[in-house]
Amino acid sequence: MVKKRLIFTLLFDRGYFMLSRNFRLQRVGDLDWLIKNYDFVRTTAQIDELVILNVERNMTSQVDFVDHLRQLCDFCFVPITAGGGIREAADASLFLSNGADKVLINTLAVCQERELHKIVEKYGQQSVVLGVDLKYIGDSFRAFTNAGSEEVRKPCAEHLAYLNELPVGEWLMTSIDRDGTGQGFDRRILDLLPENFHKPLILTGGASKPEHFPELLWDPRVSGLATAHLFNFVGDGLKSVRQALQRSGHSIPSWNSDEMIELRVKVLESSRSLNL
Q1: Distance from the first to the final alpha carbon of the chain
Q2: CA nearest 219: which of 239, 243, 197?
Q3: CA distance 238 to 39
Q4: pLDDT tens, 35-91?
């Protein structure tokens, strides 16, 4: 049986990590805050993957983001997907050569498909996650690019059929309406998937408590669930989610003992003190 995944997402903007609600951003804290007050090492020990997105509007450089990506790799023992502002294959190479295991693309797939093929040719399609951002408008869903600022002109079904033909490893579908609301995942977007869709699928947008996770992961179309809600998952939040999934009988990895986590914390704290 394929293991289900619990994923956490960090949003980065010019040196700070952010909260998002319907793709509107609010500053929270810098890297030191994340490590000290969010207990980053223990938190990442409870997840299967980490997504780090550069959400800076009108960005001119990825230097600061890449520097933070490298630093976060020192504190993280799970696969990392990095994204945000990838406009050409060289941007993806920059992330993949600085600690990322995969890259997340969205606008590139719509506007620069040739660059996507360059990435796949060099790194393989398993290295690419396709972000699909959706919003309910009127009586139907619409797809968006450029961090939710530009609506795709094609009808949603036609657009998703086009995306389904792209050489990517998996999809990450986001409900803009539920993003940061804490109202739970919007399972309606699953019904938008093309009939011949067979890729691993991550769903995100709306999670705020352990009860939001178990039922949705029983859906065979969903291979993972992600959350970016910092405050609702401070402390034992993610550990509680993992335990809830295990109690519900989900096939989810169980490889982190408390003793191993504490050993990792000591090693990293020792390494960090030596570098100060």
Answers
A1: 45
A2: 197
A3: 12
A4: 877 777 777 888 899 999 999 988 878 999 999 999 998 878 889 999 999 999 999
140-145 and 150-151 as β-strands: parallel, antiparallel, unpaired? antiparallel
* CATH classification number, 5-275, choose in 3.30.390.80, 3.40.190.10, 3.20.20.70, 1.10.10.60: 3.20.20.70
Q: Return phi, psi of residue 135, to 5°.
A: -140, 140
Query: H-helix or E-strand containing 263?
Result: helix 258-275
- Can you read off the two tokens belonging to residue 75? 């504190």
Residues annotated catalytic, as ranges:
133
Q: What are the extents of the domains in the chain?
A: 5-275
**pTM for this prediction:** 0.92
User: For residue 202, what are its two tokens?
Assistant: 């991550």
- Return the axis-axis angle of helices 89-96 and 63-73, rounded to nearest 10°: 30
